[in-house]
Amino acid sequence: ASIDYVHFHDRHLSQVNEMLSRQFWPGIDVTEHLSRPDLSVIALYQRVVVGCAFILPDGYISYIMVLPGWQRAGIARFMMHHLLQCVQSYGKDVTLHVSANNPAMMLYQSFGFKAEEFVVNFYDKYLPEGSRECRNALFLRRRR
């Protein structure tokens, strides 16, 4: 079976919340993105969510993630391309925060994102106490 790419729908909500909460930090809830499914993309293998990406109308990418085991298959690249197409008509720069040690930096650079700021302790308010995850982030921008 192939990977299908669809807009975010309420039938994906529990899988997406669980996937993001496991990968990033507990308690993530992307319910607000249901109001703008056109600014999302969900990667499905049969009925299993293997990737997701969301962008806000102001051009900020709030989440982009591919499940471990599905990485390096072009899924994130396809989703990033889709997000950039979603906001192209808005004429806005596209921005995001990424953990300072995230290997996805290479993907973002390939799309023309440039680091503008190093944000110390950006993830402090999200990560649980005692987490070993990197708390620092880079703020990236892709100019229109």
Automatic annotation (TrEMBL):
The N-acetyltransferase domain sits at 3-141
Alphabetical list of PROSITE patterns matching this protein? GNAT
Record's InterPro entries? Acyl_CoA_acyltransferase, GNAT_dom
Recorded GO MF terms: acyltransferase activity, transferring groups other than amino-acyl groups
Spell out the protein name for this chain.
N-acetyltransferase domain-containing protein
Annotated organism of origin:
Rhizoclosmatium globosum
